[in-house]
Amino acid sequence: MIEALVSSLLNVFTYPTFPFLLIGILIGFVIGILPGIGGLVTLALMLPFTFDMKPVAAFAFLLGMLSVTATTGDLTSILFGIPGESIAAATIVDGHPMAKKGEAGRAMAAALMSSLLGAIAGAIVLAASIPVVAPLVLTFKSPEFFALALVGITFVASLSGKSKLKGMLSAGLGFVLAMVGLDPQSGMPRYTMGIPQLWDGVGLVPVTVGLFAIPEVVDLWVKGTSIAERGSESLRGVWQGVKDTFIYWGVTLRCSMIGTFIGIIPGLGAGVSQWVAYAHAVQSSADKSRFGMGDVRGVLGPGAANNSSLGGALIPTIAFGVPGSPTMAILLGAFLIQGLVPGPDMLTKHLDLTFAFVWLIVISNLITVALCFLFLNQLAKITCVRGALLIPGILLLVLLGGYAESNSILDMGITLLFGFIGLLMVYLDWPRPPLILGLVLGKLVERNFFISYQLHGSGFLFRPMVIVILLIGVAALFLPVLQAFLSKRLGLKEEVFVSKED
Amino acid sequence: MSPKRIELIVSLFIVLVLGWVLWEARAWQFHSRLFPWSVGFCVLGLALIQLAFSLRDYLRFEPTLEVGPQRTPLSEAVLYGQVTSEPEVVRGRIIVICAWILGFYLGLWFLGFKLGSLILTFAFLRFTAKERRSVSATVAIMSYLFFLAVFDLILAMPLTSGLIAELIGASSLESFVIDILRWAFPG
Amino acid sequence: MMKSKPVNPVFLSAFILVSLLMVWARPSVMAAPAKQFQRSFDEKAVADFYRGKTVTIVVGFAPGGGYDIVSRLIAKHLGKYIPGRPNVIVDNRPGGGSVVAANLVYNVLRKDGTFIANFHSQMLLQQAEGREGIEFDGRRFDWLGSVSSSVGACALRRDTGMTHVKQMIGPSGRVVNMGAEAPGSGITDTTAIMRATLGLKFRIIYGYDGQRPIANAVLNRELDGFCTSWESFVSTLKSFFEPVQLLNVVAVLGSSVPDHPWLKNAVAAEAMAPNEDARSLLKIVNAPRRLSYPYVVAPEVPNDRVASLRDAFDKTLADPAFSVDLTKLGIPLEPRTGEEAAQIVNEILSLKPEAVAALKEALKRKEGP
Which site among C50, C110, C116, C367 would you substitute to test the B interface, given the most B Cβ atoms closer than 10 Å to its Cβ? Predict the structure, then answer.
């Protein structure tokens, strides 16, 4: 096995694998920055080109692209408040305020380093878990998904800032929004007002882009300054961001694990793990007051999670040939085109190829991060440009982001609508992340509820794993209360219950 | 319009929307209706509580229930290098930018991405941001070239050419203009 | 001796001409008014039109899916067979299971021959059932043809011990949990029609979000089996059969079982159907699969250009380079010309109201067997 590990590493640096890796990284870099045009679409567009490539080169190309888009998506989230990838939306919440405080360099460096560590963690788990992954993946069935999605909504509490009522209302409205579309049970259109484009529901990308990015555009114009209101700090900030990743190593590591674990479970992916990671970063801190206003931990968490999810998601795809997300489905298409059959063969006959994937992820992330660091200062300087000059470009990217997912003017209109809703929410201090979470998880909750009920009747709630998950959710919900209670009663310092680095 | 009044209106609006959501589902069969009603009624309950709170705050002129962050968003502007919180200035700017955002949407819808971005960028920079003509034109042309290069040439993913082009039956407004010029000046 | 009258040449020619005319214009056997399938075209005029232009294939699905990749393959080769050699690109307009794309090409986009629609043929069945939101008429589209053909197939996990359909029929038959999406999808309709016509004890679990999650659920033993197209089993779901066979295919939605090692114990549903009505229901539900990856243009496109597009389409599908690429995707090349496609469409859309009612009754949401 060690020889396979080493030989696959050397294989990556051969021709034509390495050049294709670089091309993939370049394409992914540009595309990752464009909102709405995500890794998924690019992967799909580039897939036909791989017909004539050899396996390692083809995957070097595709995986190179995929690894990069998650990283560069974080950069536009930080600089402009526009999610370059829907999986980078959580990075906006603290990343963009950091840019506005003039700490863009620090935020981007933190995002890059945590992305790198997250990707490496995911790759290590991928390599190490190959023998044991089967029982893990097979444990999660519809009842467990239902419980997971429900528990996900308890994280609303952490994302609500100071107003729990508004947070819950926001999540509830997101949940109701998730009901728009064809009913999964009967195929009947619900709340679609006769528009077939709405049969698949309200798009997550247009809503996310509009909700977060348009208020930033308004803010930029109203402020009348550049994005960084009082100028940007220099190279020191970048170095500080790198150090932050290691100072807060607990957050980074735990969120990497969260991302990998959630990525492994088919049906959940980086879209969910980024928010779970963010919520965890908040919950595990003693001092929560700076979150939402530029706390670097709010960047480290999602940054680590959205990259580690890739390694995690590859596990069931390679091991069983059953992809856990649309992106993985496309990668599976690539497998077929190359004549590979995912499954036990990938772990025996083609083990060197599987290890090559691991190395490809690690190396493409290393190269991307290195490239980004070279340009980081220049990128950070964008935050010092006159806001007015940037506004048309940002606005165009925002509207493009809404349009491009389905080439639909209606989606662009949804972006606009939610842009104004987001503006109201910012003005009235209503938290926005719960709405997104409600939208994402609402569909999962409903689907899995009915499937579980059809299969097991109401007994599905008493399955052991379901009970475990629900208990964890209850614990997470009441932990802060418990902490406060115990510390008052027992006279213990609150810090005992939270991580040392705070 | 104070934040408190706006919040009251919004809270009321949410209650009405939820009412519609519940009403729409009244005649559906059980499976289609279960979640909209169970989630809908719970959220309606929360919305009614929220409405009550915002009504109380509005009538009592007391500060809102939860304390917001230190600097309320959209409350400060920089005018001629000075920070100001004058509501007219701030409100004026909010209205202007919202009008432009709507304008960009309509412009892209009717003119397509390439031409729309060119015209809208130039108009915004020149007339509202009061930038120099050369700067406005440069940025506008850059955005045109961006859309041309990335979507038409590299990705071969055509973006819309706009509603007007569709209605007149041209593949794009630029080609339409070129066709007219060719017809007017043959050879 | 009888004097033979010479035949009047004018009369003779007229007679021959009229006969030929009658043969050519004979009333069609089809129920719907026959569409003229002009095949000849003025090559120069068509070339003049298409030169320098772009032909767009409007695909009703997002990039990366089977429909998208096939369309991109076609786009790669089609241009060189259209007179004037236009540029051919793909425009993805997902939504409504591809209804959006079909509606667009039928109603909104230019009807000059530069827009081709590629939507899911399942939508034709939905039109037959009178589903709202469908703003096109499959019969009026000008059909260029389709790429592949398949049959529905139902498979169960090997470890359920189900190897033959008769284990699931009758009073001693075992109930099995079959995964499905919402009614209206190919997977769900195939499962439902098998149950309705053959009396199989399928307990249909509705609500899965696509073939992928259903396959996942079968893999982790939540479900016992599912029905989808045979083509999927041999391509995207191949890992369920190789290297270890995890599924038994027990039934095929057709009149005969294809010759394949994985189909040893499968039965042909139409052969097992109890009566003619059941057989026709099975035929109708499978009909869309016979038109996999269909391509159409709007009705108002000038006949010349339609003819040239049909010609180009046929040539593309016959191009060896195209079929090599298609095999890599695991999709069998079973092309149908525009005429053949239109005939199948007519079968689907000329159902009598009683047949439509029977169809809707068989396909509606019903959990238990």
Answer: C110
